[in-house]
Design brief:
By secondary structure, the protein is mainly alpha-helical. The chain has one domain. Helix content is 87%, strand content 0%. The chain is built from ten helices and no strands. Helix 1 runs parallel beside helix 4, helix 1 packs across helix 9 and helix 6 packs across helix 9. It is globular, with a radius of gyration of 21 Å.
Length: 246
């Protein structure tokens, strides 16, 4: 009986590890798909003057994009159990497309080399923190919660700075935000690992839905780090033209 119980425990542990690997693989696959789709839409939008005019000159269009993004995040985060896996996938794809539209201006503001360099830098930072979050035995809940509180403070100070227009505040909040989102990347990865340990292999629909939810969490971390890194390291096209003229 003891031997039988021992073998069962080994099988259960093996199944859990396999399920976790399948889940995390799906999460990273969907996240990568979302990033590729966003990148393509962002680049391709620069070829469509009509959409560019809406993005640069139509405040209602931009507001609609932002509200749509917020609504999708809230739906996926709070109502994932009520959605079908197909609905979750469609919402994630729509979110990736909308983000691509809203980020298309970077191709008109920054040089291609700085866009690529910032992406590579972000990828290294993200991969490092995600691996650490997955492998560490330390509970990151406390540091994650502190980071969330700091992020709220950053958002409040950024809103206040819309009125103050202080360039020092902009740069300070940018650097702090990079640190916050890299920490959140590790925390989110650890949370997803816990989710993966509790998913049942036979529940395919549950696996797909929570893979999309996990992909969204990591996608948001990556995009936020990327935007901040680009803001800090990015070389603006206008500045490069001035250097050439001088």
């Amino acid at each position: 009986m003891k031997k039988y119980s021992y073998n069962n425990n080994l099988n259960n542990n093996s199944n859990k590890k396999n399920m976790l690997l399948i889940y995390m693989s799906n999460v990273y696959a969907w996240m990568s798909f979302g990033l590729l789709l966003t990148s393509f839409i962002s680049w391709y939008t620069t070829k469509i003057p009509f959409i560019l005019e809406l993005i640069f000159f139509n405040k209602l269009f931009i507001f609609t994009l932002l509200i749509s993004q917020l609504m999708i995040v809230l739906i996926l985060s709070n109502s994932i159990n009520k959605l079908t896996s197909q609905s979750a996938i469609i919402l994630f794809i729509i979110y990736s497309i909308i983000t691509g539209l809203s980020m298309s201006s970077i191709f008109l503001i920054y040089t291609y080399s700085s866009i690529c360099t910032s992406f590579l830098t972000t990828s290294i930072m993200f991969a490092t923190m995600s691996i650490w979050g997955y492998t560490t035995n330390k509970d990151l809940t406390k540091i994650g919660n502190i980071s969330l509180m700091c992020l709220i403070g950053i958002i409040i100070s950024s809103l206040l700075n819309l009125w103050l227009q202080n360039s020092y505040i902009i740069w300070i909040t940018s650097y702090i935000s990079v640190i916050i989102f890299t920490i959140l990347t590790a925390w989110d990865t650890q949370k997803l690992k816990e989710i993966g340990n509790n998913i049942i292999l036979e529940h395919k629909d549950q696996l797909r839905k929570y893979s999309i939810l996990g992909a969204l969490l990591l996608y948001l971390d990556f995009i936020n780090i990327y935007i901040l890194i680009l803001k800090i390291l990015g070389i603006r096209i206008n500045n490069k033209k001035r250097e050439k003229n001088n």
